C-alpha cells in the first residue's frame, strides 16, 4: 500500500498517528478542544478560501478523513499571520501545523496540483536555495508563468503597473534575470541542505516504520 | 459579637465572604471562639455584590441577612474589619497572626444616621459597584453593611471635607486621628477563606476590555442588573447610557486558556445562563441574549436550569470561542468568529458584550508559614504540609456558592479538630 | 567606537535593487545619526521565509537560518544579530527557539552545517531593529535627534503580523501594540492609536499567489487609514510595505476606490525628522510618492 | 407574671428628638403602655445610655425592656440584654426615615411613632425571656448510615473531633461504590493520571478506630426521638436488633447507577461488550489482577478499540430518563480511557460527548487525556448496534456536521449512565402518582423514622434530599439528620469527602446545641420553643401535619407531642392552630395580637386609614428597614409587625385586626413553590395555603376581598416595597373605610 492510497479507518487513530509522525508539530493536533478561535481569527477565513478551517481540519484528522484532509487546498490559504497561535487557548502552533500538513500533502503528491500557493511556495524555496538568496524577478516571473506561457503573459500584463512602479522606484532590477543577488558559498549551502534533507527523510522513515 | 481574647483554642478565619462567614459561624455555633478578619469595611464578600443566585434566582442578601443575624447573636465571633493578615508564624495548634488594621475614622458611636455623608462633597469610586459609580467619601459600604457603621475614605483625610464630616456628627463618632494598627492574634488553627477575584479582563486582548466601553465583565453586569446598583437595576450600556437589549455573553474569558487561567472556573456558564434571565426580566419584549461557549458546564442539578434557558427563544447558543471583538461606528461591540458546529462564520454586532471572566484565587502575596501547598492555579490544596492552615471556599477551588459553603463547613470541622486537641492537651 | 554594534542581517528584500531597498537606505541613514554600527553578516543567506514551507521541511529551514548564526558567530563574535525584515527576524528567532528546545534538532543541524564547514557553539540573540531602537536606545534617545519634526502629519501605524506575532516586541499587546504610534509621536507627527487595522494581515505571500484573497484585506487596511484621516501609513515590515503600497492600484480597479496613500518605513520618518534628505530617507523608492515628506525633507533644518 | 417590671426607653438621637415629640412618647408609654418606668435619652445606644438601662435592671428590678429607637436589626451589640425580654419600637427606620420632614407630615408621623410605642409596650408585656427547651438529650454519638467513602469519611472525621460513631452498612463490606473502582480521578497536582481510590486506607482507619462501632449487613429498623436523644434500632442479618442512643445522624447512602437496561438503543443489556462505568471498573480491576490487558467480555480478546458514550440516559429532556447531569462522568470516562492508554497507547479510545464537563483542575485531566491520545468527539450517539464480538456506534458528529457518522468494529462500548440517589421513601409523593406508577417508587425506607410525617428525609423532585442548596446546603427538613454525598446531589469522591466532613460538623453542632436546648439553623441559638396548652387542644392534627420539620408527633391519645430539639422555631404550628393553644415565650398569638390591639384606630371620618403589615423578619422586614435607610417614603397609615415566617401567621390576627377597624392587612412573605426562598422551606407556602381561605372569613364579616393582600417580598425590594404600600393605601381609599371602626 503506497502512502498515497493508504486508507484511514474512520474515527480511528491511525491517521492521527500518521500526522503525528510525519507532520511538523503534528503531535499537537490531538490537543485541540474545538473552541474555534483559530477559525475565527484567520484573516483569509471566508468560506470560499477555507473549505475547512484549522479546527475543522483537526477534527477531520481525528475522524480519520485522510483523503479529504490531504487533498484539501485549505491549509494552503495560511498567510502565516500567527493570529491563531497567539489566541489558541491550548497553545497549538497552528500556523506551523498548517504548513506541516501542507508540506506533507505536497510530499505525498496529494496536494492539489495547481494550488497557486503550493506552487509559489515550492518556487520560492527553490529560488532562494538556488543561490542562497531570493531573486525577486525570477520568482515573480516563475509565478506568472506557472499556468503556461499565454497565462503568464496575461498575468504579467496584469502586474505591469506594479512592475513599472517598482522599476521606477529602483526596487526591481531587470538585470536580476541574468544573475542577481547570490551567496558566495553556494556549494556549501547546497551540500548543507542536501545533508539536512537526508537526515530529515531518514528520521521520518524511521518513524513510519514504527 | 464580642471581644474575647484569642488563644491557641481560637480559630482564625481570614475572609468575611460567604465562605469565611460560614466557617466562622459554624465553628462558633459548635462552641468555638473565632476571630474573623475581613479586609473590606463590611462583611459579605463577592456574593453580596451579586444581583441573583443561580439556579433559584433568589437574592444573595437573603442568605446574608440570616448569616448576619447569626453573627449578631453569637458572642463567640470577634470581628475585625478593614483588617488584613500580613503574616502567620508558628505551627499547628500554636499560631500567631499579624494583622494590619486600617483606620475607619469612625468609631462605635456611629449610629449610621448618615449626617456625615450629607455633609461632605468629595466623591470617590465605589468598589462595591466595581467602580461603575461613585459614592461620597463618607459612606456606608452598602445597604446591608455590617458592621452598620460609616467609613471615611482615606482620600478625605486632611481636607476641609473631613472636618465637615466631623462637625456634622452629633455623636462624636468621627475620629480623624485614627491610625493604622498592627495587632497580633493567637490561634490554634487558621481557615483561609479569602475568596476569588475576577480575572483581569484587560489581559484578554482580543476582547478589547478597557478599549471598548461596551465590553464589560460578568461581575460588572451583576451590578448593572442589581436594583441598588449604579443604574438602579436598568441594563444600560456604559458608553452612552442606551438600553442594552441585545447582549452577548462570552464564556471562558480567561478560563480554560493556557495564556490566562489553566483551570475551568466552574461558575461562569451558570452565571451567564442566569444573566440571560436578567435580560429577559428587564426587557421582556425584545431582550436578546447570545451565549458564545465551548462547552456549557451546567453541572449536576443545574442542568435543569440550562434546559430552561435553552427553551427560551430569546437566548441563542453558539458553540464558538469568539476570536475578537471590534467596535462599529455606533459604538456597538462586534463579535467575530466561527460557529464550530457546522462551520458558520459570524460577524455580529451587539449592544453590550459581557465577558464571563474566570476566577483567580485571592491568595497571592500572603505570607503563610511553611510555604502553603497550592495547585498550579494558586488554589490552596488539602495537604498535611499546610499544618492547621485550611483552605475554604474559592481560596481552595473554583466553586459555586453551594460548594463553597460545603467547603467552608468542612474546613470549620478540620479547624475544630485541631483546637479540640489543643484543649485536651491543655486540660 | 559606535555606541551600539550589531551583526546585521538585512535579508533578501533589503538589498540594492530589491523590493525593500529604500528600507535599507533609510536604516543606514538612521543608524548613522543614532551612532549604531551595523556590520553585515558576511555571505548571509535567505531565511527561507514562512512561505517556503512546501519544500523546506523542518530541518532544512532551520539549517538555513543556523548557517547565518554560524557565520555571525565566526565573523562577529559576541554580537547580537539584528534584522530589519519581519520574516527574517521571525524565521531566525523560530530556529533559535526550536534548536534551543530540541537536542536532536540541534545535533542534526550541526551535522548538516558541517557540510558547509560551519558550526554553532552558542545561540545568538535575534533582534528586530525596532527592538534595538526601543529597548537599547529608548524613545528619549531617539527623540533627542529630531531636528525637523513632522508637524501636522497624520500617520496610521500599521504594525502587521510578523513583527507582532507570535513573539512581538516585549511589553506590547498582540491586538493593540502601541510602539509604532509612539514612534510617530516621537518624530513629531500625529498618531492614530485607534486605527483598528493596525494588526490586520496584509495577505503575506498570498498577495502574490492568490492576489484576490489578499487584496480584500489590503483594502480594509488602507480604507481604515483614510477613515481616520491618515495621510500616510507607516510600517516596520517590508512585505507589509510592499503589499499595501503596490496593490492599491489593483484594489482601486476591483473596488472602485481611489486609494493613493504612501506607505513608509518608520526609519524613513526618522531620517526625515533627523534632518536627512529625501535621498537619505529613500523617498525616491516609493511607488506612491510621499509628497508631504518630500516637502518636509526639502525644508531647512531647525538647529 | 407577678414580678415583671417593664421599662420603656425612648431615644432622641438620629433625628428622633427633632422629628418627634419624645416627651409625648414617654407619656404614651406611661399612660397607654402602662409601664412604670419610662425615660428618654439623647443617645441611647452609646455607653451612657446602655449603662442607664443596665443600672435600671440591676437597681430598679427591670425585667422587661421596651426600646423605642432604631430597628431591631440595628445596634444589636448595644441593646443586648440576654436575661431580659426585649421589644424594639422601630422609630427610626420605621418612622422618621420613611416620612417626609414637613409640617403637614408631622402629625401622622407622630401618630405612627406613638402607635409603635404602644405596640412595643404591649408586646414586651406579652413576652418572657426564653430559657431553652426541656427534653434535651445528652448523647454525643453520631449515627452514620452508609459505609461508602462518604460514610467512612464522616465517621473518621467525627471520631477525630472526639465523638463516637455508630456506622451502619447494609452490605457485608465497607467501601461502597468507590470500593468497586479500580482507580479514581486525581485530586492533587499534577492532575494527570488516575489515582488510588484511598478506600483501603479509609477502611483500615475505620476498623482500627475504637470510637467507631461498625455494623455490617445491617439496616436501620427504627429511628425514634430527636437530636440529642435519638433511639435507633439497628437490625443485623442474624435478625438481632441492637438499640443505640444517638445524638445526630448523617445519612450517606450514596447512589445506584442508572440502569443501562433502560437504554436498549445504546446497546444496554444487548451485549456483554456494552457495559456501564461500573462494568468497566470491574474489567479494569480484573485486568490489573492479571496481565494488565482489558479484555472483551464476549470472548476474552484484548480490547483494541473502546467508545465512551457520555450522558447515557442523562440530561434527558423527554422525561424518559434522568433530566440532570451527574457531573462526575466526564472525568470518570477520561479516567477509564486512561486505563487503556496507560497500558497500551495503541488502543483507540474515543469519548463522544456533547458538552465536556471537567470543572476546576479537571481541565488538566482532560488535557492529559488528550496528550495520551484519547480522542474527544463532540457528537450525539444515536445508536449502538452490537453484532457478534463488536459493535457499531452511530452518531451525529456535531463538528463535522455529519449526521450519519459511525464507528465500526468497536470492541467495547462504555455507557456513562448517571447517579440515582438512594434516598429512601419519598414521603411527599402524591398518592395518585404512586398509584399510577408514573414515578419510580423506592419502597424501602432507609431511616425508618417513627415521625408522624413519614419514615425518611423529604426529597426534591429528582429524588435528592431536600436542602437550601445555595446558602445553607446542609439544612435538611429533619433537624439533626444531615445527608451527605451523592444522596444529596450527584458528586464525585473528592466532593463527597468534603461533603462528609461538613456533614460531620453539622451533626456534631446539632447534638451539642440539642443538649443546650437551643435551636438549629436558621434561628440558631434561639432558646424559645413551642409550648402547647393541651387542655385546649382539639386534636385536629394541623400542627403535626404542617410542621415543615416533622417536629411534632402524636401520642396514643392523638395529642400533639412536640420534640423540641427537632423544631426550628418557625412558628408554623402556632399559625396553624385553630384554637390558638401553641405559643413561644417571646412570640405568641398574644404578643402579636396585643400589638394589633394596641394601635389607636381613628374613626371613619378622620381619613386616616390603618393598615396592618405582617412582615417576614427574614426578607420583608429587612427590605422595609433598608427602604428607610434609603429614605424611601411610604404611607404613615401602616403599622408593621415582624413575624418569624408567613407560616406562623394565625388567621385570628387578621380577623382581630379587621374587627378592630383596620382597613386592610398586608402579608409580606417569601417566595414559595419549587424555587422557594423561605428559610423554613415550606413555611411561606403553608402560610399562603392557610390565608387563601381567608376570603370565607371576609365574607362572613361582609368585607371586601381587597382588605387582605398576600404579597411576595424579596429582601432586595427596597424600592418596590414602599411602592406596594403606597399603592395599596391608595386602593383602600377607593374601597372606603372599614365598617368596623369605632366598635
UniProtKB/TrEMBL annotation, chain A:
Transmembrane intervals: none
Molecular function terms, GO-annotated: iron-sulfur cluster binding; metal ion binding
Classification via InterPro entries: 4Fe4S_Fe-S-bd, 4Fe4S_Fe_S_CS, HdrC_iron-sulfur_subunit, Helical_ferredxn
Entries under PROSITE patterns matching the protein: 4FE4S_FER_1, 4FE4S_FER_2
GO cellular-component term (any): plasma membrane
Pfam families: Fer4_8
SUPFAM superfamilies named in the record: alpha-helical ferredoxin
Alphabetic keyword roster: Iron, Iron-sulfur, Metal-binding
Residue span(s) of domain 4Fe-4S ferredoxin-type: 21-52
Name the record gives this protein: Heterodisulfide reductase
From TrEMBL, chain B:
PANTHER family xref list: COB--COM HETERODISULFIDE REDUCTASE IRON-SULFUR SUBUNIT A, FERREDOXIN:COB-COM HETERODISULFIDE REDUCTASE SUBUNIT A
Transcription as UniProt keyword: no
GO-annotated molecular function: 4 iron, 4 sulfur cluster binding; metal ion binding; oxidoreductase activity
Protein name, UniProt field: Heterodisulfide reductase subunit A
Iron in keyword set: yes
UniProtKB keywords: 4Fe-4S, Iron, Iron-sulfur, Metal-binding, Oxidoreductase
Pfam families associated with the record: FAD_oxidored
Highest taxon above the source species: Bacteria
Species of provenance: Thiobacillus denitrificans
InterPro entries: FAD/NAD-bd_sf (IPR036188), HdrA-like (IPR039650)
TrEMBL record, chain C:
This protein's record includes keyword Membrane: no
Record bears the keyword Cell wall biogenesis/degradation: no
Gene3D superfamilies: 1.20.1050.140, 3.40.50.11810
Entry keyword set: Oxidoreductase
Record's signal peptide: none
Top-level division of the source organism's lineage: Bacteria
Coiled coil: none
An MF annotation (GO) of this entry: oxidoreductase activity
InterPro entries noted in UniProt: Cys_rich_dom (IPR004017), HdrB/HdrD_reductase (IPR051278)
Cysteine-rich domain residues: 6-88, 157-244
Protein name (Swiss-Prot/TrEMBL): Heterodisulfide reductase
Protein's organism: Thiobacillus denitrificans
From TrEMBL, chain D:
Pfam hit, one: FlpD
Xref: PROSITE patterns: 4FE4S_FER_1, 4FE4S_FER_2
Cofactor needs: FAD
Record flagged with keyword Iron-sulfur: yes
This protein's UniProt keywords: 4Fe-4S, FAD, Flavoprotein, Iron, Iron-sulfur, Metal-binding, Oxidoreductase
UniProt KW Iron keyword: yes
GO MF annotations in UniProt: 4 iron, 4 sulfur cluster binding; metal ion binding; oxidoreductase activity
4Fe-4S ferredoxin-type domain boundaries: 528-557, 558-587
Family: Belongs to the HdrA family.
PANTHER family: COB--COM HETERODISULFIDE REDUCTASE IRON-SULFUR SUBUNIT A (PTHR43498:SF1), FERREDOXIN:COB-COM HETERODISULFIDE REDUCTASE SUBUNIT A (PTHR43498)
Protein name: Heterodisulfide reductase
Species, as recorded: Thiobacillus denitrificans
Lineage, highest ranks first: Bacteria, Pseudomonadati, Pseudomonadota, Betaproteobacteria, Nitrosomonadales
Amino acid at each position: 500500500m503506497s502512502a498515497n492510497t493508504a486508507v484511514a479507518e474512520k474515527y480511528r487513530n491511525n491517521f492521527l498517528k500518521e500526522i503525528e509522525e510525519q507532520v511538523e508539530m503534528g503531535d499537537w493536533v490531538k490537543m485541540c478542544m474545538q473552541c474555534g478561535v483559530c477559525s475565527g481569527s484567520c484573516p483569509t477565513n471566508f468560506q470560499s478560501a477555507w473549505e475547512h478551517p484549522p479546527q475543522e481540519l483537526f477534527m477531520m484528522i481525528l475522524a480519520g478523513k485522510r483523503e479529504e484532509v490531504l487533498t484539501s487546498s485549505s491549509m494552503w490559504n495560511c498567510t502565516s499571520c500567527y493570529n491563531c497561535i497567539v489566541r489558541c487557548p491550548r497553545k497549538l502552533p497552528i500556523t506551523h501545523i498548517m504548513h506541516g500538513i501542507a508540506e506533507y500533502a505536497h510530499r505525498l503528491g496529494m496536494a492539489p496540483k495547481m494550488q497557486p500557493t503550493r506552487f509559489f511556495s515550492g518556487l520560492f524555496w527553490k529560488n532562494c536555495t538556488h543561490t542562497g538568496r531570493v531573486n525577486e524577478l525570477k520568482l515573480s516571473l516563475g509565478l506568472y508563468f506557472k499556468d503556461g506561457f499565454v497565462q503568464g503573459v496575461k498575468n504579467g500584463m496584469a502586474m505591469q503597473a506594479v512592475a513599472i512602479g517598482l522599476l521606477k522606484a529602483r526596487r526591481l532590477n531587470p538585470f536580476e534575470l541574468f544573475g542577481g543577488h547570490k551567496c558566495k558559498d553556494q556549494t556549501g549551502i547546497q551540500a548543507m541542505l542536501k545533508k539536512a534533507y537526508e537526515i530529515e527523510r531518514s528520521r521520518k522513515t524511521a518513524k513510519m516504520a514504527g | 459579637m464580642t471581644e474575647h481574647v484569642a488563644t491557641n483554642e481560637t480559630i482564625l478565619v481570614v475572609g468575611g465572604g460567604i465562605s469565611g462567614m460560614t466557617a466562622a459561624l459554624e465553628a462558633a455555633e459548635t462552641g468555638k471562639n473565632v476571630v474573623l478578619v475581613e479586609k473590606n469595611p463590611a462583611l459579605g464578600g463577592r456574593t453580596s455584590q451579586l444581583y441573583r443566585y443561580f439556579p433559584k434566582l433568589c437574592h444573595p442578601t437573603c442568605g446574608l441577612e440570616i448569616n448576619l443575624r447569626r453573627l449578631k447573636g453569637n458572642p463567640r465571633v470577634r470581628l475585625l474589619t478593614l483588617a488584613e493578615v500580613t503574616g502567620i508564624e508558628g505551627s499547628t495548634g500554636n499560631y500567631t497572626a499579624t494583622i494590619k488594621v486600617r483606620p475607619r475614622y469612625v468609631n462605635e458611636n456611629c449610629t449610621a444616621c448618615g449626617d456625615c455623608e450629607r455633609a461632605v462633597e468629595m466623591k470617590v469610586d465605589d468598589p462595591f459597584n466595581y467602580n461603575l459609580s461613585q459614592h461620597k467619601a463618607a459612606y456606608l459600604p452598602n445597604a446591608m453593611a455590617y458592621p452598620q457603621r460609616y467609613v471615611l475614605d482615606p482620600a478625605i483625610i486632611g481636607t476641609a471635607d473631613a472636618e465637615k464630616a466631623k462637625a456634622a456628627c452629633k455623636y462624636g463618632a468621627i475620629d480623624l486621628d485614627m491610625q493604622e494598627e498592627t495587632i497580633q492574634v493567637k490561634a490554634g488553627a487558621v481557615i483561609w477563606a479569602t475568596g476569588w477575584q475576577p480575572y483581569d479582563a484587560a489581559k484578554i486582548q482580543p476582547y478589547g476590555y478597557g478599549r471598548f466601553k461596551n465590553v464589560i465583565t460578568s461581575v460588572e453586569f451583576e451590578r448593572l442588573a442589581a436594583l441598588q446598583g449604579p443604574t438602579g437595576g436598568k441594563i444600560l450600556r456604559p458608553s452612552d447610557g442606551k438600553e442594552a437589549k441585545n447582549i452577548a455573553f462570552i464564556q471562558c474569558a480567561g478560563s480554560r486558556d493556557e495564556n490566562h487561567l489553566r483551570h475551568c472556573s466552574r461558575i461562569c456558564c451558570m452565571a451567564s445562563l442566569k444573566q440571560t434571565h436578567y435580560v429577559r426580566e428587564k426587557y421582556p419584549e425584545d431582550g436578546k441574549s447570545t451565549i458564545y461557549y465551548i462547552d456549557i458546564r451546567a453541572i449536576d442539578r443545574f442542568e435543569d436550569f440550562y434546559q430552561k434557558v435553552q427553551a427560551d427563544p430569546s437566548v441563542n447558543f453558539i458553540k464558538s470561542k469568539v476570536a475578537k471583538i471590534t467596535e462599529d461606528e455606533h459604538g456597538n461591540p462586534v463579535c467575530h468568529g466561527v460557529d464550530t458546529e457546522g462551520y458558520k462564520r459570524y460577524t455580529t454586532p451587539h449592544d453590550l458584550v459581557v465577558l464571563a471572566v474566570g476566577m483567580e484565587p485571592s491568595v497571592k502575596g500572603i505570607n503563610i508559614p511553611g510555604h502553603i501547598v497550592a495547585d498550579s492555579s494558586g488554589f490552596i490544596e488539602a495537604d498535611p504540609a499546610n499544618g492547621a492552615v485550611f483552605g475554604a471556599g474559592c481560596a481552595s477551588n473554583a466553586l459555586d456558592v453551594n460548594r463553597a459553603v460545603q467547603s467552608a463547613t468542612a474546613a470549620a470541622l478540620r479547624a475544630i479538630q485541631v483546637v479540640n486537641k489543643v484543649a485536651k492537651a491543655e486540660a | 567606537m559606535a555606541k551600539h554594534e550589531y551583526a546585521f542581517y538585512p535579508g533578501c528584500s533589503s538589498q540594492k535593487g530589491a523590493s525593500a531597498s529604500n528600507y535599507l537606505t533609510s536604516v543606514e541613514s538612521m543608524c548613522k545619526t543614532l551612532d549604531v554600527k551595523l556590520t553585515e553578516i558576511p555571505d548571509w543567506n535567505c531565511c527561507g521565509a514562512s512561505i517556503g514551507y512546501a519544500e523546506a521541511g523542518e530541518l532544512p529551514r532551520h539549517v538555513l537560518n543556523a548557517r547565518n548564526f554560524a557565520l555571525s558567530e565566526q565573523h562577529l563574535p559576541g554580537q547580537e544579530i539584528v534584522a530589519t525584515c519581519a520574516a527574517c527576524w521571525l524565521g531566525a528567532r523560530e530556529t533559535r527557539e526550536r534548536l534551543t528546545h530540541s537536542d536532536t534538532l540541534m545535533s542534526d543541524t550541526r551535522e548538516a552545517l558541517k557540510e558547509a564547514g560551519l558550526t554553532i557553539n552558542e545561540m545568538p540573540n535575534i533582534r528586530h531593529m525596532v527592538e534595538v531602537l526601543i529597548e537599547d536606545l529608548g524613545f528619549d534617545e531617539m527623540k533627542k535627534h529630531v531636528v525637523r519634526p513632522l508637524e501636522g502629519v497624520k500617520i496610521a501605524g500599521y504594525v502587521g503580523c510578523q513583527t507582532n506575532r507570535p513573539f512581538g516586541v516585549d511589553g506590547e499587546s498582540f491586538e493593540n501594540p502601541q510602539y509604532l504610534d509612539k514612534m510617530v509621536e516621537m518624530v513629531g507627527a500625529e498618531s492614530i492609536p485607534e486605527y483598528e487595522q493596525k494588526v490586520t494581515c496584509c495577505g503575506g505571500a498570498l498577495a502574490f499567489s492568490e492576489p484576490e484573497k489578499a487584496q480584500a484585506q489590503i483594502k480594509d487596511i488602507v480604507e481604515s487609514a483614510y477613515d481616520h484621516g491618515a495621510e500616510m501609513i507607516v510600517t516596520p515590515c517590508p512585505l507589509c510595505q510592499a503589499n499595501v503600497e503596490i496593490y492599491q492600484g489593483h484594489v482601486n480597479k476591483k473596488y472602485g476606490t481611489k486609494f493613493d496613500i504612501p506607505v513608509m518605513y518608520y526609519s524613513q520618518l526618522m531620517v526625515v525628522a533627523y534632518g536627512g534628505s529625501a535621498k537619505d530617507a529613500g523617498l525616491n523608492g516609493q511607488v506612491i510618492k510621499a509628497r508631504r515628506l518630500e516637502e518636509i525633507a526639502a525644508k531647512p533644518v531647525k538647529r | 407574671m407577678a414580678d415583671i417590671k417593664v421599662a420603656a426607653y425612648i431615644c432622641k438621637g438620629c433625628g428622633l428628638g427633632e422629628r418627634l415629640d419624645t416627651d409625648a412618647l414617654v407619656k404614651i408609654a406611661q399612660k397607654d403602655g402602662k409601664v412604670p418606668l419610662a425615660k428618654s435619652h439623647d443617645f441611647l445606644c452609646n455607653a451612657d445610655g446602655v449603662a442607664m438601662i443596665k443600672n435600671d435592671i440591676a437597681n430598679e428590678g427591670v425585667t422587661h425592656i421596651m426600646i423605642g429607637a432604631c430597628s431591631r436589626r440595628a445596634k444589636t451589640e448595644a441593646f443586648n440584654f440576654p436575661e431580659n425580654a426585649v421589644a424594639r419600637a422601630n422609630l427610626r427606620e420605621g418612622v422618621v426615615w420613611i416620612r417626609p420632614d414637613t409640617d403637614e407630615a408631622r402629625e401622622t408621623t407622630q401618630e405612627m411613632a406613638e402607635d409603635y410605642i404602644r405596640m412595643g409596650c404591649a408586646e414586651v408585656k406579652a413576652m418572657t425571656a426564653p430559657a431553652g427547651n426541656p427534653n434535651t438529650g445528652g448523647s454525643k454519638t453520631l449515627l452514620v448510615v452508609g459505609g461508602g467513602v462518604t460514610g467512612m469519611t464522616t465517621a473518621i472525621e467525627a471520631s477525630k473531633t472526639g465523638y463516637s460513631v455508630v456506622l451502619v452498612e447494609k452490605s457485608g463490606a465497607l467501601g461502597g461504590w468507590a470500593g468497586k473502582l479500580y482507580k479514581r480521578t486525581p485530586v492533587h497536582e499534577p492532575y494527570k493520571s488516575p489515582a488510588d481510590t484511598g478506600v483501603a486506607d479509609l477502611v483500615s482507619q475505620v476498623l482500627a478506630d475504637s470510637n467507631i462501632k461498625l455494623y455490617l449487613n445491617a439496616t436501620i429498623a427504627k429511628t425514634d426521638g430527636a437530636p440529642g436523644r435519638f433511639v435507633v434500632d439497628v437490625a443485623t442479618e442474624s435478625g438481632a436488633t441492637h438499640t443505640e442512643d444517638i445524638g445526630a445522624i448523617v445519612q450517606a447512602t450514596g447512589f445506584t447507577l442508572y440502569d443501562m437496561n433502560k437504554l436498549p438503543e445504546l446497546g444496554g443489556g444487548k451485549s456483554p461488550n456494552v457495559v456501564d462505568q461500573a462494568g468497566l471498573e470491574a474489567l479494569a480491576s480484573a485486568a490489573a489482577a492479571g496481565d494488565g490487558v482489558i479484555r472483551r467480555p464476549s470472548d476474552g480478546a484484548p480490547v483494541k478499540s473502546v467508545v465512551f458514550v457520555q450522558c447515557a440516559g442523562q440530561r434527558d429532556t423527554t422525561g424518559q430518563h434522568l433530566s440532570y447531569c451527574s457531573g462526575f462522568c466526564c472525568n470518570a470516562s477520561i479516567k477509564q480511557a486512561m486505563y487503556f492508554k496507560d497500558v497500551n497507547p495503541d488502543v483507540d479510545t474515543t469519548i463522544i460527548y456533547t458538552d465536556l464537563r471537567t470543572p476546576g483542575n479537571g481541565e488538566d485531566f482532560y488535557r492529559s487525556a488528550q496528550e495520551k491520545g484519547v480522542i474527544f468527539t463532540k457528537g450525539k450517539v444515536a445508536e449502538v448496534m452490537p453484532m457478534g464480538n463488536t459493535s457499531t456506534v452511530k452518531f451525529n458528529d456535531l463538528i463535522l456536521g455529519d449526521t450519519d457518522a459511525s464507528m465500526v468494529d468497536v470492541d467495547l462500548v462504555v455507557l456513562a449512565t448517571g447517579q440515582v440517589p438512594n434516598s429512601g421513601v419519598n414521603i411527599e409523593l402524591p398518592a395518585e402518582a404512586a398509584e399510577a406508577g408514573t414515578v419510580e417508587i423506592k419502597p424501602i425506607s432507609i431511616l425508618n423514622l417513627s415521625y408522624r410525617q413519614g419514615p425518611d428525609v423529604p426529597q426534591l423532585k429528582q429524588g435528592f434530599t431536600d436542602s437550601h442548596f445555595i446558602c445553607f446546603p446542609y439544612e435538611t427538613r429533619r433537624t439533626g439528620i444531615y445527608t451527605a454525598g451523592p444522596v444529596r446531589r450527584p458528586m464525585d469522591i473528592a466532593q463527597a469527602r468534603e461533603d462528609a466532613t461538613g456533614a460531620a460538623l453539622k451533626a456534631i453542632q446539632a447534638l451539642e446545641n440539642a443538649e443546650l436546648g437551643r435551636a438549629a439553623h436558621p434561628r440558631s441559638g434561639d432558646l424559645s420553643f413551642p409550648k402547647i396548652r393541651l387542655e385546649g387542644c382539639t386534636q385536629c392534627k394541623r400542627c403535626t401535619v404542617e410542621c415543615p420539620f416533622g417536629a411534632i408527633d402524636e401520642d396514643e391519645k392523638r395529642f400533639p407531642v412536640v420534640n423540641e430539639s427537632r423544631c426550628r422555631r418557625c412558628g408554623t404550628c402556632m399559625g396553624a392552630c385553630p384554637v390558638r393553644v401553641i405559643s413561644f415565650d417571646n412570640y405568641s398569638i398574644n404578643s402579636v395580637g396585643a400589638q394589633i390591639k394596641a394601635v389607636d384606630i381613628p374613626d371613619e371620618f378622620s381619613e386616616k386609614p390603618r393598615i396592618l403589615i405582617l412582615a417576614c423578619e427574614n426578607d420583608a422586614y429587612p427590605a422595609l428597614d433598608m427602604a428607610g435607610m434609603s429614605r424611601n417614603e411610604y404611607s404613615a397609615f401602616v403599622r408593621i409587625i415582624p413575624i418569624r415566617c408567613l407560616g406562623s401567621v394565625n388567621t385570628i390576627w387578621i380577623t382581630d385586626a379587621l374587627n378592630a377597624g383596620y382597613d386592610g392587612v398586608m402579608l409580606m412573605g417569601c417566595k414559595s413553590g419549587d424555587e422557594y426562598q423561605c428559610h423554613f422551606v415550606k413555611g411561606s407556602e403553608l402560610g399562603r395555603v392557610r390565608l387563601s381561605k381567608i376570603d370565607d372569613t371576609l365574607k362572613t364579616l361582609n368585607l371586601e376581598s381587597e382588605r387582605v393582600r398576600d404579597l411576595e417580598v424579596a429582601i432586595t425590594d427596597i424600592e418596590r416595597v414602599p411602592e406596594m404600600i403606597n399603592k395599596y393605601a391608595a386602593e383602600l381609599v377607593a374601597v372606603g373605610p372599614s365598617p368596623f371602626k369605632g366598635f
